[in-house]
Specification:
Length: about 170
């Protein structure tokens, strides 16, 4: 994916092998060294300011809930790049630049758990990939599925809130 590369790196960069490998991988893919962001990442703000931005978001072994930062914005995950056994980069672009037709994608929703909802979702529409409980008593759930409209219809028909599609593999 061509565009302006940005590497989000929330960990120490000094002597970090995964950080160095990530920069090298991005440089090999794009021909440019990425801009580095080490502080809080505002995905929606970056994509609003720089629609040609390609954000490389590291997800480390045993990380859960990393996708929560993408909810409600226009950023979608279009690729996963394995850097090492401990680190992979999620490649995020603005939804308008993503080609999502007919491919599995990550779909996210905030839900209040109910058995009927999970029976419907673990079907041909979508499969639960990850969940994260919130302090408010709701669950942010990540699903894998192909049809965004069918997914939204099922969520809305059960009285739950849809927060947005966040990507695809």
């Amino acid at each position: 994916m061509k565009g302006f590369p940005i590497l989000y790196w929330p960990h120490n960069t000094n002597g970090n092998t995964d950080y160095q490998l990530s920069r090298k991988v991005i440089n090999n893919l794009t021909g440019m060294m990425p801009e580095i962001i080490t502080e809080d990442l505002d995905v929606a703000g970056i994509l609003e300011q720089k629609q040609d931005a390609v954000i490389y978001y590291p997800v480390f072994c045993e990380s859960t809930g990393w996708w929560g930062e993408l909810l409600g914005g226009s950023g979608v995950v279009i690729e996963k790049i394995i850097v090492s056994p401990e680190c992979q980069l999620m490649v995020i672009v603005d939804e308008s630049r993503a080609e999502l037709n007919g491919q599995n994608r990550l779909l996210a929703a905030e839900i209040k758990p109910a058995s009927g909802f999970f029976k419907k979702m673990n079907s041909s529409v979508a499969t639960v990939a990850d969940m994260l409980a919130t302090d408010a008593g709701t669950i942010l759930a990540l699903f894998s599925g192909k049809n965004k409209n069918q997914f939204i219809n099922i969520i809305e028909s059960t009285g739950n809130s849809y927060l947005g599609c966040i990507g695809q593999y």
